Amino acid sequence: MKKLIILPGATNVLGGTLVTLGLLLQGISQCQAASQVRVLAPAGSFLEEYLRTKGQGEYLELIAAETETEFCRQSLRWVSQQPQDWALLMDNCVAKELMSALVPGSIALRLSKRPVYFFFHDLALTNNPVGFAIRKFIFATLNPATMCNSQFTAGHIKRFAQDLRGVLYQPVDLARFNPKAIATPPPGLEGIIASGAQIMLTPSRLNKPGIVNDKNLRALIPVIAALKQLGLNYHGVIIGDDTSADGSHRRDLEQQAAELGVSDRLTILPPTLEVESYYKCAAVVVTLAPREPFGRTVVEAIACGVPVIGSSSGGIGEILSHFAPQWRVEPNQPQEVARAIAEVAQADNTPQLLEQGIAWVNQRCSPIDYAKRMLKIVDIKPV
After folding, report:
1. Helix, strand, coil shares of the chain as percentages rounded to 5?
2. CA distances from residue 176 to 148, 149, 247, 282 in whole angstroms, order as listed
3. Mean pLDDT to the nearest integer, 329-350
4. pLDDT, tens digit, for every residue of 119-131?
5. Per-residue 3-state assignment (H helix, E strand, C coil) for 272-331
6. Is residue 213 scored above 90 in pLDDT?
7. Contacts of 234 (CB under 8 A, 6+ apart)
8. pLDDT in tens, 260-290
9. Cβ atoms of 164 and 146 closer than 8 Å
């Protein structure tokens, strides 16, 4: 029986790629194809814990490894011992830590003639010319059939791979993300709601500015200041992990807020597995990353019935163009963003646009439809 082996590129961080993997497995279960899929994971990793917590432990094939590099190397060794008709899906394996394992691994995979697929969750770009050349070599050697998460991503990955089999908008857990109200505000929001402030929510990890996939969180603080100048009582809430080793990304945002006189209007909270309850308390979600490949935040917020003011570029702008193009803004124009937030709160057509958005998400982002498309591309027929 043919099977699909999934090799995740990130195993110790909660992000869109991991969430998507869990939803893919949910859809595969609904397709009655669970016995035909194996997910490789480092023993004791966050990935293992995450999938077991979601009741998806049956998919796991645990690999003993201390580092991401060793995990990739040992995983490819395990793959080489499996039947040749078992396809390999490399799920965004583009991190620099994996390159030393993927160079020899790609050669071995090419010689084995095993079907290889690659899903791009981001643009796979790097500002390091040596790193870029290594990635070019790996993809030229693998020559994989590819998939990606948006037309925006598709336009960029052509420099690495030509055989694009599909653009799959990422799935949303529609049972969790819905417009139903919640009874009790989640931790960290009680005081803000009691104060009467409107919540401007941005779920996003805190990363280094200027990188290829800069989340552009520093653009949020001037927006909060502009809303204050307009006499509007909005409180910015960022939910996400600080990716710096010393907490400097958080401190930078807090210092910026102090300089602009809005320290009392900014709250930064840790990541949570129950982010849907935070969406449902928000008046608006604002996401200003200029090169976001997809923008899971957008579809999750819309599924919860919350309007989104988002960057006009990248995957965020692409998604909004399907149902609310007027909610797109230039990400580094705080006055424009503030005006858009004010307008969406007052516009008579906001409920209609949200209805259109919810219908689009339900149609294009359900886990079972995502899984069906994936299984068709990798030629797995449920038995």
Report:
1. 45, 15, 40
2. 24, 21, 31, 16
3. 97
4. 999 999 888 899 9
5. CCCCHHHHCCCCEEEECCCCCCCCHHHHHHHHCCCCEEEECCHHHHHHHCCCCHHHEECC
6. no
7. 197, 198, 199, 200, 224, 227, 228, 265, 283, 284, 341
8. 999 999 999 999 989 999 999 999 999 999 9
9. yes
